Amino acid sequence: MKILIAEDEEMMLKTMEFKLNKEGFQVVACSNGEDAMGKIVSENPDIIVTDINMPFVSGIDIVKKVKVELKLNIPIIVLSAVGLEKTVLEAFDLGADDFITKPFSPNELIVRVKRLLLSV
Length: 120
Known about the structure:
single chain, alpha/beta, five-stranded parallel sheet, 22% strand
C-alpha cells in the first residue's frame, strides 16, 4: 500500500515516513503541497495524509483537488494544529475522511491509516 504524505515540517515528515515504512507501507514524502499535487496523479497513492497549513498549496487545496476536481476515491487524513476548527470543517465538507490534531502519536496515525484502508 502506498501512502502520500504532505507535510512542510521536516521532523514531522521524517517521523511519519519512518513509522509508516516500519509498518510495511511504501511512502511518498512531500515537503509541500505543490510537490504533493504533482505526485498525487503520478504516484496514485492508496491514501493521503496532509497537513492543512503549508506554503504554496494548502491541505484544503489538496482535498479539493482530489475529491472535488479529480473525483478520486482516495481516503484523506488531514493534520492540523489545535484551534483550526473552521478549517477542519471545511476539509470535511470537501470530502476529507479523517482528522488528527497535532501533536499526535505516530501509533495513532498507523491505527487511523489501517482503519481507512480497510474501509475502502
